[in-house]
Each structure stands twice: as C-alpha cells, then as structure tokens.
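Cross-check.
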Amino acid sequence: MRTLRAALISFLLLAGSTLAEAVPEALREGGNGWRQWGSGEMSWWGLALYRATLWVAAPPGGELPADVPTALRLQYRRDIPRDRLVQSSLDEMRRLGADEAQLARWQGELQRVLPDVREGETIVGVHYPGQGAAFYHGDRRRGEIADADFARLFFAIWLDRRSRSPALRAALLQGPAL
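Predicted model, tokenized:
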C-alpha cells in the first residue's frame, strides 16, 4: 500500500500544472483518481453560506491519507465579496497559528486567487502537501500559492480539530461510503 501511495504521489507531483488545470473537471467526473470523501453545509447564525465537499486523490481505503493531494469544493449559497472571503480566511488562519508577517504576505495572494462569488458559484482549493495550493473559480484556474505553510493553515480552517465548525469538519472527514 505504501508503494502504491508513493507512486500516486510521484505521479501527481510530476504531472504538476497539467493535473492542476484539470482538477475541477476531474472532481465533477470523479476522474483521475479523485474520490469524494465527505460533504456538509456551512451556516452562520442560521444562514446557509456554502456546501463544502472534500475530495481526495488517493486509492480506496478507510482512512484519509495525510500525504496526498486533497481538494475542497465550496458551492456558495449566497453572494460573498472577495474582501470578506479574504478577511475571514486571514482571521481564521491567525486563530490557527499564523503570525502577522505571514498574514501580511498571504493577504495579497488571497486577493489574487479568490474572486467575488455569487450564489450557485463554486471555488475549489487544491492542497498539495509540502508544496502549496491551487485555486479555481468554476472551471477557471485562478492561480497558485506556492507556500506549504499557507496551504496547511488555509485548509486547517475546515479540517483542523480546532475548526470553528466541528460538525462540518466531521462531515468532511467522514470518509466515502464503502
């Protein structure tokens, strides 16, 4: 199993931007080894904000591998301006341990890769452990942030045990039905 996982990781790293370009389509079709892992709703004070779905680039198995790419797809239930998305992300990353120098660097990067979203639109963030993250708005690639610390803390917003939404975290980490 370790050999298969290592081969998959090597393939994904070698494929680089070619794989990154195809991620939203691959998620929709379940292609290229991406599997839906878990899904749940995020709401705030009773207002539905988005539906989050976690995808994993891994062979079938019962536990979420720590060292494989994951993708988080957020389908928005309401319009949210880019500035609010950026500020909320920075606030959560600060709460999870980012320092002010990191946040200052990442603010411009987030402004570049996150769009204003309208109800029904999606953002997909892909975490490449040890490398960084790529972002998509619908099927359009918005860009990458090549910073492993950024990617780790950004995806921790949803997946860390200290997440503000433990119910959503549990739904995302539930794993695929076998």
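Confidence is low (pLDDT under 50) at residues 1-22. The CA atoms of residues 102 and 150 lie 8 Å apart. Passed to J.P. for a second look.
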